[in-house]
Design brief:
Elements (H helix, E strand, L loop, with lengths): L3 H22 L4 H33 L5 E5 L2 E9 L9 H17 L5 E6 L6 H22 L7 E7 L20 E6 L4
Parallel strand pairs: 3-4
Antiparallel strand pairs: 1-2, 2-5, 3-5
Subcellular location: Cell outer membrane
Keywords: Cell outer membrane, Lipoprotein, Membrane, Signal
Pfam families: OmpA
Length: 192
Amino acid sequence: MLNRSSRAAGFAVALAAVTAMAGCSNYVKRTDYDAAISKLQSNDAQMQQQLDSLKADMEQRFAKYDATLTEMQGRLRVDTVAHFEFNKADLNDQDKAMLQDFAQVMKAHHSNAVVTVEGFTDPAGSSAYNKRLGQKRADAVRDYLVSTEGMSDTQVRAVSYGESRNRQVEPGATRESGSNNRRVALVVDYAG
């Protein structure tokens, strides 16, 4: 019969062997690793191709508007989409035409994309008030895209940046000179 220390030593050796074998099973074969990396690179290239296609579609549609398209880290940002009167969140007809063009491109070619409507204000008023007003503007555009243009409500979300200084087109400008600050922008977060 084995003594207690021999059994403990045997158990420790067996445990070490099992642990070593289990550790070996966690190694990834080089071929599997290369295949996974290749698949990720292929997906990345496909996403970039879709984003390039979306940008080309948008550039063609928005050539007649004063809009800027910016590609950033897998997203496409459409600036100067809708402007608002001072202290208002109502869309004007010119903005509705641009939003209609945007929705048509998204529905026709990029129906799975997620769109974030970003609302902004000029710095007149309190920060809390401007945050709420920016949200009303973003909501107005989101609601228009969903109810009038038929985009999915799960596809379009709205956020407010209010008077965030680093997001103002004309820093510190209010009233007439701050009209470019009173706007929404659209960000396409996923072009797949």
